[in-house]
Amino acid sequence: MSTDSAAKTGVPQPTLADIEEARDVLRGVAIETPMEESRWLSAIVGGPVFLKCENLQRTGSFKIRGAYLRMCRLSEEERAGGVVAASAGNHAQGVALAAQLLGIKATVFMPEGAPIPKEKATRGYGADVRFHGSSVDEALVQAKAFAADTGAVLIHPFDHVDIVTGQGTCGLEILEQCPDVKTVLVPTGGGGLVAGIATAVKAMRPDVRIVGIQAEGAAAYVRSLAEGHPVPLRSMSTMADGIAVGCPGEVPFHAIQEYVDEIVTVSEESLSRALLMLLERAKLVVEPAGAAAVAAMLDHPDRFETPAVAVLSGGNVDPLLLMRVIRHGMAAAGRYLFFRVRIPDLPGGLAKLLQELADVEANVLDVVHERTAPNLNLDEVEVAMQVETRSTAHADRVLARLRERGYRVSE
Asked: What is the DSSP string of 286-310?
């Protein structure tokens, strides 16, 4: 552990030697995930971009790295008492698999409404799953109470030096797989992953820029870093459950304060668009949190020096959420167009409108007639349209074509 940092803050911190030792411990447990060059993203950014595919890690996210390292270091007495964790799903699966491999009983508290596939996978690894609260923070309160009542060891999702150390092994792989990297972008919730990666990377390459990416609706680090200590959010709202954490942990906070160069936030629309592009262009299934680094690059194509590495932190996405996110992402990318248009309430009026749309190659998905609105004339009807377009520019051409033909269009 870093004695200098611990002496200054009173909070234990990992060193490069700790992370290198952790890598030896994790051999045969966590896989060295692939790194793929992204030609389409490189073209957008104007330089080489690589995707570090932690979505292809065992359990579908990076979490097994820290969870196993933390749990393998428990004493026999601690192992006998079992472990408890709180998670929206990724840490839950990491803890459950680590417990299975080590022969430890695991209890996991998940917030109500946690993704069903994550719950089922956690149970599949043998953990006892219980639900509490509406967020990871509320589930964590219950997990701590369970630990106090039963003697089970709490395996915190991010606020422990072993957790940060384990996640840091990903940073070692990044430097080996992309030796000339200039920027590393990392999805950030509680901060364990970015803290670990930053500690490893800065120790070997202090010139590399480390950027943490948070969802706008759950950006606890922005205010916390500004005030110099962890500050809890009053509320959160994001579909990126993997990085929806209301308060930074003490251990990762101090590492991030020392080693992370910048925190960038991304919108729900950007997350949706990034997820869709990863699915379409990279053929990779990534959850919203896992797409955060790519979302930041799409939002700011000139901001990050290349070669750049975007960490895809997880791929555990509920199929129902995936369907909604794909639709949202297509709308954000201009692939869905919603508008209202007034047409004559006469035979052939709708057919003429549909022909105009066909001529401009817009695919009609939905049509709803409205005849009873008080602002409509007696001889007209308003039609709500949903059409599929190829891009924002194509959508603009569709609307322009209709207006040229004399239609009254509102978006």
From this structure: --TGGGHHHHHHHH-TTTS-SSEEE
Q: How confident is the prediction along the chain (411 residues), in pLDDT tens digits per residue?
A: 554 555 566 889 999 999 999 999 999 999 999 999 999 999 999 999 999 999 999 999 999 999 999 999 999 999 999 999 999 889 999 999 999 999 999 999 999 988 788 899 999 999 999 999 988 888 999 999 999 999 999 999 999 999 999 999 999 999 999 999 999 999 999 999 999 999 999 999 999 999 999 999 999 999 999 999 999 999 899 999 889 888 999 999 999 999 999 999 999 999 999 999 999 999 999 999 999 999 999 999 999 999 999 999 999 988 888 888 877 777 777 788 889 888 888 888 889 999 999 999 999 988 887 766 667 777 788 888 889 998 888 989 999 999 999 998 987
Residue 133 sits in the same domain as residue 173 = no
Q: Which residues are catalytic?
A: 63, 313
Instruction: Name the DSSP letter for residue 278.
Output: I
Q: Smallest Cα–Cα separation from 109: which of 78, 137, 71, 150?
A: 137
Rounded CA separation 37/60 (Å): 20
pTM: 0.86
Domain that holds residue 248: 3-60+161-331
Q: Which one of 302, 331, 360 terminates a domain?
A: 331
Burial class (CB in 10 A: 0-12, 13-18, 19+), 121: buried
Do 184 and 51 share a domain, yes or no? yes
